[in-house]
Design goal:
The structure holds 2 protein chains of 2 kinds.
Chain A lengths: L41 H16 L4 H13 L4 H13 L4 H11 L7 H14 L1 H17 L4 H14 L28 H21 L4 H13 L7 H17 L4 H13 L8 H4 L9 H8 L17 H13 L3 H14 L4 H13 L7
Chain B lengths: L1 H10 L12 H14 L3 H4 L2 H13 L1 E3 L4 E3 L18 H13 L9 H11 L18 H14 L7 H10 L17 H13 L6 H12 L16 H13 L8 H10 L17 H13 L11 E2 L4 E2 H10 L2
Antiparallel strand pairs in B: 1-2, 3-4
Helix pairs in contact in B: 1-2, 2-5, 2-13, 5-7, 7-9, 9-11, 11-13
Classes of the chains: A mainly alpha, B mainly alpha.
Chain lengths: ~375, ~325
């Protein structure tokens, strides 16, 4: 296909013989000076003039695919052109896997285009579940380019909910794999077992992503979604405990990581576990580095292995707040207030907020903010 | 310098701005509202030019026998109009604000049909699609714009408010913030839209729910504000997070001087504000930076008028809408 090869010199649509039967429709921006007019270049002016023409005649043809692609390359936010392209693909019964490949080539330069991702979603709805698994791999490649791209994460979560969580999930009809016989995706397509594997793999995927960047909150959010809030989440006290352990290790690695502390609070809040449960873990992070050696001496005896590293910036503000909230929750107002005082000093940008927390704690000592 | 930058934007955008071709109405609103906050529309723009601008906005008004609203620009319009050009919710919201900024009397507006347009775009899950038949689905930004439009029209007829509120609640994250769609990671923009939408729908956050949201927002300040946990600061979040805090009655928690110092560094040498220091300015960051400075003027003061953080326009402009739509 011609549009896959960007090498030949660009020919305006008005000079393309296959378009000679179409009369271009120039834009009419009104008689008076317009607001925020764009100094269009000739290429865009030419292509959009032909688009206006076919938009009126409602032509759906191969040449319309060429035309819409040219416009999208110049303006990936042109939602009408995207939709028209999609409808043309459907009208022509075009091979949608080819469109998917084309989009894979375009997307890396348009990762922030809402329309490009929406187009992909529409294609997947047509292609169905058999294409969805390789899409998870595609999303991972896209994340390698921009690990916090909002659209990519939303797309990934959509894939999981839409294709790997058929409702209702009935365990009694689920076929378990028999020894030595790996079921293929095809013959177990509608079975929960394969779906479960996808969701399990999702957790491993967040492990990999956190290895790369332990502060990436998109990953932490995704992990919480998969394990606790998504359609296949199966929260249990054991899971909460193993996730607490996991997060504590990550905090030991980088104590001033708001994403990890937020995840930890999420675990406690979701399982209605009091913050004070983790006082022994959090306490060392509120002490200065100078006191850490003496803590390490006792660490072994107390079976505390998760002390902050020697290069950690301490005391950690997030730990101070955590302890303050935990003490407030227990009604130990005076002790909590000492920590809020320290927060006023160490986190002065939120001075008014810490003062407010102190005041409200004095009024209602059992109001936790997990 | 900011004044001439905004006027330049309204008079013409470079060819590099192709991506806003279908959203010119929003760009116009950012620049008009910037000039409004700078009190410069009466002093720096001639009456004739403002009339031209008004006519252009009205030219984007689409009405058929059932629905009415505004499109983003004439990107589909030829000399003989025969193409179907649907109105867009975000463009309708920004067009109404822009007309109010230009003190239009709204005589030409068919409020009943605009409501019918909103009604038609509401989806079964309570959200709104940006335009009828868009196949795009809804998100929390569009809910906000739809409800803000209802508020301006002073009517909620045909809108299923309970469903809209339920959708907003489905976007809530356990830490009190909001994502753009259900299950999505939270960000400051979505959290503003949620807080504002709940206020518009007379379902303001309360009690412990409110406390959590406040805590999340307060923690986004680093100087300026970041939009997500552990991300870089970005000028627009000074507005999104700052305005949300004001709507929650917690303006005191913002360190105004630290915020203003960050925004001052985002100013571009040829005018306007960029998302961060050293980047190019753009109309969105220019307006939202000024709007944030207007809500949170630093101790050394800024020459900006006050703003209504709920509808996101100058206080007098919102008063004008309320009066005309009464």
């Amino acid at each position: 296909m011609e549009f896959l090869n960007p090498e030949p010199p660009y020919i305006l649509f008005k000079d393309r013989p296959e378009w000679s039967d179409v009369t271009a429709v120039p834009q009419d921006d009104g008689p008076s000076p317009p607001l925020a007019p764009i100094m269009y270049n000739d290429k865009y002016k030419d292509a959009t003039s032909y688009f206006r023409a076919i938009y009126v005649s409602q032509e759906h043809s191969q040449r319309v695919l060429d035309l819409t692609l040219e416009i999208i390359k110049q303006n990936a936010s042109h939602y009408t052109v995207w939709q028209y392209r999609y409808r043309t693909l459907i009208a022509l019964n075009s091979p949608l896997t080819e469109e998917l490949h084309l989009l894979s080539k375009l997307l890396p330069t348009h990762l922030k285009s809402y329309q490009a991702w929406n187009h992909r979603r529409l294609l997947l709805l047509q292609l169905g579940k058999k294409s969805a698994r390789s899409e998870l791999a595609f999303a991972e490649i896209a994340l390698a380019k921009d690990a916090k791209n909002y659209h990519t994460w939303v797309y990934r979560e959509w894939l999981l909910c839409n294709f790997f969580a058929p409702m209702p999930f009935v365990t009694s009809t689920t076929i378990s794999p028999t020894e030595g016989e790996e079921p293929t995706i095809e013959d177990l397509d509608d079975e929960g077992w394969v779906d479960d594997e996808v969701w399990r793999e999702e957790v491993a995927f967040t492990d990999r992503m956190l290895e790369d960047d332990v502060r990436n909150n998109s990953v932490w959010h995704h992990r919480f979604f998969v394990l606790f809030e998504g359609p296949r989440a199966r929260p249990s006290p054991e899971l909460v405990q193993s996730e607490i352990d996991y997060t504590e290790h990550k905090i030991a690695l980088a104590p001033n990581n708001a994403s990890a502390w937020n995840y930890l609070r999420g675990l406690l809040s979701n399982s209605k576990t009091p913050l004070s449960t983790l006082l022994p873990f959090a306490r060392p992070y509120t002490l200065p580095q100078s006191l850490q050696p003496s803590l390490r001496v006792f660490a072994e005896a107390e079976e505390r292995e998760l002390l902050p590293g020697e290069n950690a910036q301490l005391p950690c503000v997030m730990a101070l707040e955590f302890i303050a909230d935990a003490l407030g929750e227990k009604g130990e107002v005076e002790e909590a207030n000492k920590l809020f005082d320290e927060l006023v000093e160490r986190d002065p940008i939120r001075k008014q907020f810490w003062e407010y927390r102190k005041r409200t704690l004095a009024q209602a000592p059992t109001a936790p903010v997990a | 310098m900011h004044v001439s930058h905004c006027i330049r934007t309204l008079r013409g955008l470079p060819s590099g701005a192709l991506e806003v071709d279908s959203f010119r109405m929003m760009v116009a609103y950012y620049s008009l509202s910037s000039l409004d906050l700078l009190s410069s529309l009466d002093t720096k723009v001639k009456a004739d030019e403002k009339e031209d601008w008004k006519s252009w906005i009205w030219k984007q008004y689409i009405a058929d026998e059932h629905i009415a609203g505004f499109r983003g620009s004439s990107f589909l319009t030829g000399p003989s109009a025969s193409a179907k050009e649907p109105p867009h919710i975000l463009m309708t919201y920004t067009a109404l604000l822009s007309l109010a900024i230009l003190r239009d009397d709204f005589c030409r507006l068919d409020r009943r049909r605009v409501l019918a347009f909103l009604e038609r775009t509401q989806l079964p899950d309570g959200s709104f699609e940006p335009w009828p038949g868009s196949e795009e689905g809804g998100d929390i930004r569009i809910i906000y714009a739809a409800l803000a439009t209802c508020s301006m029209l002073n009517s909620w007829d045909g809108i299923d408010l309970d469903k809209a509120v339920a959708y907003v609640k489905a976007c809530r994250v356990q830490d009190g913030s909001y994502g753009q769609t259900p299950h999505a990671e939270a960000n400051g923009g979505a959290t503003y839209c949620a807080v504002a939408a709940l206020n518009l729908a007379s379902h303001p956050l309360q009690g412990e729910e409110r406390d959590r949201t406040v805590r999340w927002l307060v923690h986004r300040q680093r100087g300026g504000f970041q939009g997500r946990i552990e991300k870089e600061q970005d000028a627009c979040y000074s507005f999104w997070c700052g305005a949300a805090l004001t709507l929650l009655g917690c303006a005191d928690f913002v360190d105004r001087d630290a915020n203003a110092e960050f925004l001052m560094r985002c100013q571009f040498k040829l005018g306007g504000f960029a998302k961060a220091a050293g980047e190019f300015s753009d109309p969105l960051h220019t307006y939202l930076s000024m709007a944030a400075l207007s809500i949170y003027p630093p101790s050394w003061g800024v020459p900006l008028t006050t703003i209504d953080p709920l509808l996101n326009a100058r206080t007098e402009t919102v008063a004008w809408i309320r009066e005309k739509m009464n």
